[in-house]
Amino acid sequence: MKTLSKITKYIRSKNAGPFWVTVDLFFKDKDSFFYACKNISNEEVSNILKIKRNHLKRFDIENLKVIKFSFPRKNIQGSRLDRDMHGASFAILFEKLSV
Length: 99
Hints:
Elements: H1 4-7, E1 8-15, E2 20-27, H2 30-39, H3 42-49, E3 57-61, E4 66-72, H4 92-95
């Protein structure tokens, strides 16, 4: 088994507006991209993020060798309950994911 950190160049999370967060997985090559496309399930990702599966949006972008996951923020960006203004803390959850 491989981990995502071994087959990606970068794993980045960021705001996608005040209501959404996006996690981008940038793969080293096409083989790694296709391997991950087959072996990463939306159910597994929604479990990691602790969200309902139907709240997760997935985009497999072959030209860029990127898999993008978008999901609603639990708290609106900048609200008093928001603890991650930039959505940057979600990437770490994916690094040890086995694929």
